[in-house]
């Protein structure tokens, strides 16, 4: 499939959402940030010029992120110039727990509102669910009931935009059948080793912006930083492999949230606005074979004997 490219000018470092708000093209991811979270966010915002921070209750770092955001505001960064994303976890998906979950997140982040609130995974887990889940740990997910509560958060100005993560086409179509406020953003794993073309095209058709997570792959699953195609293009352009991977995501029309605890890498990953990946090299990145997810949800949702999901293929509705 031919990949469309999108070019952003140096001044235009973001994408317009269907709500009219803008999401910065590059954000800092905080998954597995651990004790580095506070320092990473402080470095990103005050030293590297990031305005988009992506976090989640499940990451366990929201209080540290909140402390750094407060420090940034005290240093003169205006809240209205920041774009803060968080996500509701699977244990909080009874509809009556949506608002309390958000209020807890706002308290941890020391914020009055979120720019974007996402459903982290479209599965409802029991509070004490094991990994892998035991029989009875995966509960019925009332998608419509949860979305209605998400919509109320927008109407009450606690959240500016709402969206989804880790959805399949089947689940996206179900959501679109009843949504009164459409999802503004769909966040998915995307990188040259897992292009996820089908969901990207479906979101574009429906006016839903896509944010790419794990854009650099993963040292455990798919180390794209050392992929020979990526390294060759990086050498040719005199850029780092990380910069090439971030730029590839932006040229596809997605925002992107690379994670790093290294201050130099944090600064490097956002230096992607005054150059382009040439078409031939962009195409080479779009045609890397051996497409495979890094984060497949197996540990969270698959119980091979008891179900209800006995395989990764079932988690992803057999769409891969």
Characterization of the model:
- The chain has 320 residues and is an alpha/beta fold.
- Helix content is 35%, strand content 16%.
- It has helices at 37-47, 62-74, 98-109, 143-155, 169-178, 197-205, 228-237, 241-251, 263-269, 279-285, 298-301, 312-315, and strands at 14-16, 22-24, 28-29, 52-54, 83-88, 114-119, 124-125, 138-139, 159-165, 185-189, 209-213, 217-218, 222-223, 255-256.
- The strands form four sheets. An eight-stranded parallel β-sheet has the order 3-4-5-6-9-10-11-14. It has a two-stranded antiparallel sheet with strand order 1-2. Strands 7-8 form a two-stranded antiparallel ribbon.
- Helix 1 (37-47) runs parallel beside helix 2 and helix 2 crosses helix 3 (98-109).
- The radius of gyration is 19 Å and the shape is globular.
- The two termini are 16 Å apart.
Write the layout of secondary structure elements.
Elements: E1 14-16, E2 22-24, E3 28-29, H1 37-47, E4 52-54, H2 62-74, E5 83-88, H3 98-109, E6 114-119, E7 124-125, E8 138-139, H4 143-155, E9 159-165, H5 169-178, E10 185-189, H6 197-205, E11 209-213, E12 217-218, E13 222-223, H7 228-237, H8 241-251, E14 255-256, H9 263-269, H10 279-285, H11 298-301, H12 312-315
Parallel strand pairs: 3-4, 4-5, 5-6, 6-9, 9-10, 10-11, 11-14
Antiparallel strand pairs: 1-2, 7-8, 12-13
């Amino acid at each position: 499939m031919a990949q469309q490219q999108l070019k952003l000018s140096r001044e235009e470092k973001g994408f317009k959402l269907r709500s009219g708000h803008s999401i910065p093209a590059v954000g800092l991811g905080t998954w597995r940030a651990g004790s580095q979270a506070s320092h990473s966010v402080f470095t990103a915002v005050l030293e590297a010029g990031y305005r988009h921070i992506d976090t989640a209750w499940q990451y366990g770092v929201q209080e540290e992120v909140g402390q750094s955001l407060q420090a940034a505001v005290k240093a003169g960064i205006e809240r209205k110039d920041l774009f803060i994303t968080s996500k509701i976890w699977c244990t909080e998906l009874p509809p009556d727990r949506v608002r309390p979950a958000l209020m807890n997140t706002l308290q941890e982040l020391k914020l009055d509102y979120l720019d974007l609130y996402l459903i982290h995974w479209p599965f409802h887990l029991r509070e004490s669910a094991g990994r892998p889940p035991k029989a009875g740990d995966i509960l019925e997910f009332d998608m419509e009931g949860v979305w209605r509560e998400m919509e109320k958060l927008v109407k009450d100005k606690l959240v500016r935009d709402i969206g989804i993560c880790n959805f399949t086409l089947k689940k996206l179509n179900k959501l679109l059948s009843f949504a009164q406020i459409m999802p503004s953003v769909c966040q998915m794993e995307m990188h040259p080793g897992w292009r996820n073309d089908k969901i990207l095209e479906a979101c574009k058709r429906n006016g839903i912006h896509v944010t790419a997570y794990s854009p650099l792959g993963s040292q455990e699953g798919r180390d794209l930083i050392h992929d020979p195609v990526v390294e060759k293009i990086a050498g040719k352009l005199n850029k780092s492999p990380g910069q090439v991977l971030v730029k590839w995501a932006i040229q596809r029309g997605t925002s992107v949230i690379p994670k790093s605890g290294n201050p130099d890498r944090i600064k490097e990953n956002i230096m992607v606005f005054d150059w382009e990946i040439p078409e031939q090299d962009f195409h080479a990145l779009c045609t890397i074979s051996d497409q495979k997810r890094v984060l497949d949800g197996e540990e969270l949702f698959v119980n091979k004997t008891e179900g209800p999901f006995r395989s990764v293929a079932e988690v992803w509705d057999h769409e891969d």
